[in-house]
Amino acid sequence: MTAELLLEVSKSFLFVIAAVLPILNPAATAPIFLGLTQGASRQTRESLARRIARNMFALMVGSMLVGSYVLEFFGISLPIVRVGGGLVVAAAAWQLLNAHDASDERRTALAESFTPEHARRRAFYPLTFPISCGPGSIAAAITVGVALNDARFSISLARMGGGVLALLVIAVLLYFAFRYAEQLLRPLGEAGSVIFLRLSAFILLCLGVQIVWDGASELLRSLLA
Q: What single string gives the DSSP state of each residue in the chain?
């Protein structure tokens, strides 16, 4: 029985890694994090990276374990979550895409205004949700949670344990990607970093529109049916 449970833990661990990591994609969201924390000190970014990783882990675990029950309780469907969340993602990306390049004086002003308290207020919204952990990730976590359920309680517990362990590993990867985002982009230089940030913002905008389209398409199909 122990061997069977360990096998279920291992299988669910790999399943959640394969299903969730490509959607969260910490390496792709790290430049967005860097752009939205312009003016923040290195210590503030490190603190934010820890908070975002913790928030993401808690949000994804909650979505995986009880997300489907919460949506059912409030009568909210996954397509509605995708439409609402996609609009938020698109709005954040549009703001970042149209941000002006900061001069030296503006960088100094930003650094003075980006206090630890200000960073804490932004840690969950928009840096955790929807930038780091958007509606697509939450929908994936809810779907994974449904797939991991089993009629046997011990099997379900083992699978959920493997899933939680996988989300913990992803949270650690997210932390390191955000903490060292500036070092990762440094080889590009200032001009290259600006171009890369603009491209990342545009891709994020397209992703938000795609999420809205996916949710709206599902709603239209259900309406026509």
A: -HHHHHHHHHHHHHHHHHHHHHHH-HHHHHHHHHHHTTT--HHHHHHHHHHHHHHHHHHHHHHHHHHHHHHHHHT--HHHHHHHHHHHHHHHHHHHHTPPPP-HHHHHHHHHH--HHHHHHHHHTTIIIIIIS-HHHHHHHHHHHHHH--SSHHHHHHHHHHHHHHHHHHHHHHHHHHHTHHHHHGGGHHHHHHHHHHHHHHHHHHHHHHHHHHHHHHHHHHHH-
* Tens digit of each residue's pLDDT (9 = 90 or more) over 61-81: 999 999 878 888 888 887 887
User: What is the domain extent for residue 126?
Assistant: 2-224
- Is there a contact between 155 and 2 (Cβ–Cβ < 8 Å)? no
117-146 tens-digit pLDDT: 767 778 888 889 888 888 778 888 887 887
- Which whole number is the average pLDDT over 180-203? 76
